[in-house]
Amino acid sequence: MTTLIKGGQVLSTTGASLADVLVDGEKIIAVTAPGVFTEADEVIDATGKYVLPGGIDAHTHMEMPFGGTHSVDTFGTGTTAAAWGGTTTIIDFAVQAKGTSVLSTLDKWHEKADGNCAIDYGFHMIISDVNDTSLKEMEACIDGGVTSFKMFMAYPGVFYSTDGEILLAMQKARETGSTIMMHAENGIAIDQLAAQAYAAGRIEPVHHSLTRPPELEGEATSRAITLAKVTGSPLYIVHLSAAQALAAVAEARNEGQNVFAETCPQYLYLSIEDMAKPDFEGAKYVASPPLREKSHQTDLWKGLRTNDLSVVSTDHCPFCFKDQKELGRGDFRAIPNGMPGVEHRMDLLHQGVVAGEISLGRWVETCSTTPARMFGLYPQKGVIAPGSDADIVIYDPAARQTLSAETHHMNVDYSAYEGLEITGKVETVLSRGRVVVSPSGFSGSTTHGKFLSRGLNQYLI
Ligand code: URP
Ligand code: ZN
Ligand code: ZN
């Protein structure tokens, strides 16, 4: 089966050029000047559209047990919503609970995801119990294509690791060439501030943000960077939200340390003002790190331009407002932490192009090419080139749309961007050569997605 995508502007990290793309089976086999090929089993006219590599969302949580409940998107519903939004690969987190084995955790996540995804997927491993066995099991994870490990300086008693435990895992990462991903917030200090706020009767959702000040993200980020320097481990800061943390990352990168960072659309578009909405509506925006004052957004966009922020992921972790966020009415500490977003990342970052914040090339780079390289998937993923998987998005840059829970495909009862009007819309999506989204709707299947055994971070030398 061959597919010719003709007349579009093909995007890469360097910008746009008029070209045709020929697909045979699951692979791209040619990218040519317009008109070189005229025939194929299926011809898609992309005139006036962008043709870009499918998005790679390197930070999602489908069916994640957390906060006394589960994130509500299954691998099936979440990957279908991702496809609707132009994302053709996710990397989700398997979660080692304290007292359990890393490898049995990995088996469990394969059971949940294998045969149940609409697009291709990989895993990172969350290490929450550092001991001799789990450190050894990191090696087996890498053999199984799971080459990055998330640790937490937040959530004491749940996922939290001490500096000593982080040091041990980082030594293992250094030894194996794998990457430590860090949730960098000083959870010990935050828990004290949160307890004080609750005791004083400050129970509303906005106090989630007020008790997690940006300085405590900056401090933890600096500490993680220091531990990475001492051990020689590559470090990737997840969901960076604060100017203080970005400054620490930029300084380390200027010194040549293997430190990388991602941010998420919610930190670029939403703020603490959303968390202060009345009638408990602020609970919709409770995630960690929290939404910040708007002034941080300027720094984050700048970080995306300078590559101190290399990746945009969603941290998609949806909990329904009605039944789940409710758990924290009367105590903001009990609101499940997480927000939906896997469907909107490509659109929201394209909106950054429209607003002049980033270039077309940076859109593709931060949302597809760099995550592919960072997590050992390039050039199978992240680029439109002969030999690469035919994960392709045809994007209409002029279409207008309004984001809403009424029209989104995520399995959650609210949109964090309700009513937001944006320019640009996904028109057609191919996942390994198969059209999964088109103007006629979703034509994929939740058995199509394959597990991706990933290599090591390709930015390391
Ligand atoms: O609040 C968040 N971010 N929930 C998901 C878990 C995490 O820390 O990434
Ligand atoms: Zn986190
Ligand atoms: Zn997360």
Automatic annotation (TrEMBL):
Superkingdom, natural source: Bacteria
Pfam family of the protein (one): Amidohydro_1
GO CC list: cytosol
Keywords on record: Hydrolase, Metal-binding
Cofactor(s) in the UniProt record: Zn(2+)
Organism per entry: Amycolatopsis xylanica
Boundaries of every Amidohydrolase-related domain copy: 50-436
Matches recorded under InterPro entries: Amidohydro-rel, Hydantoinase/dihydroPyrase, Metal-dep_hydrolase_composite, Metal_Hydrolase, Metallo-dep_Hydrolases_sf
Modified residues (N6-carboxylysine): K150
Name this polypeptide is given: Dihydropyrimidinase
An MF annotation (GO) of this entry: metal ion binding
Keyword flag Hydrolase: yes
Family (UniProt): Belongs to the metallo-dependent hydrolases superfamily. Hydantoinase/dihydropyrimidinase family.
NCBIfam families: D-hydantoinase
Tagged with keyword Hydrolase: yes
Post-translational modifications: Carbamylation allows a single lysine to coordinate two divalent metal cations.
